[in-house]
Design goal:
This protein has 19 helices and no strands. The protein is mainly α.
């Protein structure tokens, strides 16, 4: 049993690392117009700052998750924090968009390592009856990062420029490194001795990268079709190999034998895919259509993550006593309501409507995230915490990537060759409306998936 100090250290590291990664994403959204203007690149290219990071995390979560279960949790966590911090500080000196994209990929490598380890370390430090409470703290910190990201990100971008966002994130990562070194106990991985399926992991990485890049290249004709087809073929090869491997990179039997586990992961995928691009699109609407500064837009956008940060820990505790399946289904329904409101946004839409839509979506997030994660972790043994966490992280990353891919495809078709700073407000509103039609349908589908669990 972990000591009180070890529990505190595990919570602190989970909070700091989760905050850092969520802060970078939400703060960077407010800097998109500035980055686009400085490097003179198209709107679709700037979107890769988000997509490239999420694609890297999606591709590497499972390999690093399996490594967590057979290697050393603390060492992988510390190394991941170091790589994440190096990516942040490298972004500060970026001379070009290409270099900045590479640094975002470096951050994705570190982020995949951190996300694969901080949750297993956290829930291993707490007894099962307190799992929801512990997860509530961790997931709540994600939403604190989302809350402060638009505010501090807007202020930093407005007064110091977009590079200040990465300075702040790098400093928080450094604090997480110091806390992990001092407070996280020696590794207690239960799965040591199992083999690392290198061919299987390589197949998984190739499958994710090829398939997701193919999706993002949609609209380029035969190129995207070939990439998607190759990705699906690699996915089939990966599944076939894992089903006959003694120590697979991903235990397919987890999905075959437990419908609840499978549906919980699918529900997470649908939720993240339908909601991740909200902050990206809202920041563009507020700055380009409504004419607010990045600082003011950040303050307005706090409506969503503030509710998430305030209520998520409480929802995590409630999911220890009440059905996490019912709670997450309610959350999906609220997300559908919030995204549905954005379908009807126009240039003259009242700011109160925008804030209400953000608040309702934030409430849906709070009901969904901690209870759904608690449900997923209840289906696996302690020795598989790492891979189960990584599967969920992969669902999250693929969902986030898919969300941005949807936006990128719509932007590429409706605003080809245009920089964000040159976009006509009417055209941007049309892009936002069409994107949210797709997102609302996904949320509605997620409701039925979530309700089918026992």
């Amino acid at each position: 049993m972990s000591t009180v100090n070890e529990r505190r250290a595990a919570v602190a590291v989970a909070i700091l690392t989760s905050f850092t990664m969520s802060f970078i994403g939400s703060a960077l959204n407010l800097s998109i117009p500035s980055i686009s203007g400085e490097f003179a690149v198209e709107a679709s290219t700037v979107g890769w700052l988000v997509t490239g990071y999420m694609l890297t995390v999606a591709a590497l979560s499972v390999p690093f998750g399996r490594l967590v279960d057979i290697w050393d949790r603390k060492k992988e966590l510390v190394l991941g924090i170091v790589i994440l911090a190096l990516g942040c500080f490298g972004s500060i000196v970026s001379p070009s968009m290409g270099f900045l994209l590479v640094m975002r990929i470096v951050q994705g490598i570190g982020g995949a390592m951190v996300m694969s380890t901080n949750t297993p370390i956290l829930i291993s430090a707490y007894p099962p009856q307190m799992r929801g409470k512990a997860l509530g703290y961790s997931i709540g910190s994600v939403y604190v990062g989302l809350s402060l990201g638009p505010v501090f990100g807007g202020i930093l971008n407005h007064h110091l420029g977009w590079r200040a966002v990465f300075i702040f994130a790098g400093l928080i990562a450094a604090a997480a490194f110091a806390t992990a070194i001092r407070g996280i106990p020696a590794d207690k991985t239960e799965g040591k001795g199992r083999a690392f399926d290198l061919p299987g992991n390589i197949l998984f990485v190739l499958f994710i990268v090829t398939f997701m890049y193919g999706l993002s290249a949609a609209g380029r004709g035969i190129e995207s079709v070939i990439l998607i087809g190759c990705g699906l073929a690699l996915g089939v090869c990966f599944v076939a190999r894992e089903m006959r491997t003694e120590d697979p990179a991903l235990n397919i039997s987890l999905f075959k034998s437990n419908a609840g586990y499978t549906l919980s992961n699918v529900a997470a995928l649908m939720n993240y895919a339908a909601t991740f691009a909200i902050s990206y699109l809202t920041s563009l609407y507020l700055q380009i259509v409504s004419g607010y500064s990045s600082q003011t837009a950040g303050l307005i956008m706090m409506a969503q993550p503030l509710i998430m940060a305030a209520l998520t820990p409480k929802m995590g505790r409630l999911s220890d006593r009440h059905s996490p399946f019912i709670m997450s289904s309610i959350g999906m329904g609220l997300c559908a309501l919030g995204t549905g409101m954005f379908i009807f946004v126009r240039e003259d839409t009242s700011l109160a409507v925008i804030i209400a839509a953000l608040a309702i979506t934030g409430l849906g997030f709070a009901f969904f995230s901690s209870p759904n994660t608690n449900a997923i972790m209840s289906f696996v043994e302690k020795k598989d915490y790492g891979i189960a966490t990584s599967v969920l992280n992969t669902m999250r990353s693929i969902g986030h990537t898919s969300s941005m891919v949807i936006v990128t495809i719509i932007v590429s078709f409706m605003m080809p060759g245009m920089q964000i700073t040159e976009v006509d407000p009417d055209m941007l509103v049309m892009v936002i409306n069409r994107a949210f039609v797709i997102f609302t349908v996904m949320c509605l589908t997620g409701i039925f998936i979530s309700m089918k669990r026992n």
